[in-house]
Amino acid sequence: MGPRILITGATGFIGSRVAATATTLATSAPEPARVRLLARSPLPLAAGAGAEYETALGDLRDPASLRRACEGVDVLIHCASAIGGDAELAHAVNDEGTRSLVDAAERAGVTRIVALSTASVHGRGPFRAAGPGTLSLAPVSATSRTRAAGERYVMDAGGTVLRPHLVYGTGDRQLMPGLVRLLGALPGPLDGGTSLHSLIDVDSLARTLLGAALSPRTQPGPYYVDHPDPVPVAELLTAAEDLLVHRTGKPRGPAVDVPTARALLAGLPFAQHHLDMLAVDHWFADDRPWRELGCDPGPGFTAGFAGHASWYRDLLADA
Q1: Cβ atoms of residues 146 and 91 within 8 Å
Q2: Contact status, residue 265 vs residue 271, Cβ threshold 8 Å
Q3: pLDDT digits over 4-19, tens only?
Q4: What's the pLDDT at 43?
Q5: Domain count of the fold of the chain
Q6: Would strands 190-191 and 221-224 be described as parallel, antiparallel, or unpaired?
Q7: 126 preceded by a cis bond (ω within 30 of 0)
């Protein structure tokens, strides 16, 4: 038999795709993996894409449940996190929860730990072609501070951390919906300037998480994991603008530059956050996942987004 894999966050945006990819592997590999999903309640069959898996009932805030979940496990893929403005929950899940999970994994003899993190642990840019080991940690939000703390437990245990910047695709309820919300508050399209941004589609990221967990060439420590080609901000905003126009069916006014947008949206904190990110480069360059681990970065943004556009249109139509 193949390795027994424990996946946390299996009901979330990225973790659900990792679970689906892993359960497909469980039925197709020469030595099938055995997949266990950590969840707070029993998962429906659809969560496993129809393949065999088992559910370990537990919670990152319950150390005893984590010890039970890790029993007999060879590989841990940790995708669960608390994202948002609740600092107390972020500390309990991302910081203390990750510490308890890593401790349980070490006690159980888990041989490989791979955790999903975020490039936002480096704070705000500009970052231009930033390579591994070139940036210090400078998180500015409760979410990124506690995820940086969680990273440390993983790496102290000899584990691997993947840090994507922006992730898009089916299941995304933050990145593209947030940009559509921003644009909808403006009288016309946003002229974001010339900044470059690292993105990856969710399915490519899921395959890379699984690949890092199973490859003998995976190294301890952090990896950036984004498509090798950075995306011009105009390309990203055009995709969001197209979703907005499709949703409203209304003509738009003339383009608005970033300084004007800041003034128009001065009372909206969410808008200022998005504008801060869009205005400067957030480009991370790390070819190791593709060169050393044999993973596929997937399509570039324009082709990749086209495959998810109908899902976004349906999501926004129901919003």
Answers
A1: yes
A2: yes
A3: 999 999 999 999 999 9
A4: 73
A5: 1
A6: unpaired
A7: yes
In a domain, 134, yes or no: yes
**Ranges of the chain whose pLDDT falls below 50:** 45-50
Domain assignment of residue 32, given as a range: 4-167+200-226+285-298
Report yes or no on 28 lying in a domain: yes
* Whether 53 contacts 18, CB under 8 Å: no
Tell me the sheet residues that pair with 47: none
**Is residue 246 one of the residues assigned to a domain?**
no
> Any idea which residue has 């933050």 for tokens?
174
Residue located via tokens 């499709």: 246
Q: How many Å apart are CA 191 and CA 73, to the nearest integer?
A: 50
Provide the token pair at 72.
């007999």
- CATH number at 128 reads 3.40.50.720
Which pLDDT value is given to residue 91?
97
Please check whether residue 22 lies inside any domain of the structure: yes
Burial label for 176, CB within 10 Å (0-12, 13-18, 19+), is buried
**DSSP labels for 127-194?**
EEEEPTT-------SHHHHHHHHHHHHHHHTT-EEEE-SEEESTT-SSHHHHHHHHHHTSSS-EE--S
- Cα–Cα nearest to 14, from 177, 141, 171, 161: 171
Q: Which residues of 117-150 are buried (b: 16+ CB within 10 A; e: fewer)?
A: bbbbbbbebebeebebeebeeebebbbbbbbbbb
- In whole angstroms, what is the distance from residue 50 CA to residue 242 CA? 34
The pLDDT assigned to 301 comes to 98
And the tokens for 143? Answer: 């979410």
